[in-house]
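BUG: 3D viewer hangs when loading the predicted structure for this chain

Environment: internal workstation, default settings.
Expected: structure renders.
Actual: progress bar stalls at 90%.

Input used:
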Amino acid sequence: MISFTKEFAFILSRYPQLREKVFGKAKFMCGIKQWRCFLARIYLLVVVSLPAFAEPPDSSPIPDARVARAVFTSGIEAREPLDRMVVLENSATSIYFFTDLRNLQGRKVTHRWEFDGQVISEIPFEVAGPRWRVFSQKTLNPSMLGRWTVVVVDQSGWPLHASIFEYKPAE
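Structure tokens produced before the viewer hung:
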């Protein structure tokens, strides 16, 4: 334990930025109580930062799960999209997002509508078959112009698909 604390004391004396992160703007002290506090802070710093360095998995937790189709549309008829939209003028205030899901039976899937980095709404669906078509509708505020994103996520929060459309002023 003594060599461990001596090594950290040496490291902190050589790297003042790390010392400030651990201790704040307080002066570097070498008392027993301060070392316990210091070790607790180092432990928290390491534990909190480990997830940031963890590598994300290469594939979905459900290997065969996928979004076969994802389309923004002006309407749905017979469980199919009427058209495909990537730009919508603010004279229209409603848009649909259609997804054709594969191999997600027995799971919950959510359409997460986002605008300007903020989640605006989340619409969950229970998938009951190997091929399942679902859609969500969003009524738009004409002043919320810009890029909108819908992220399709599974029940674990894993993103399966993301689509973007542009909401712009009417010409």
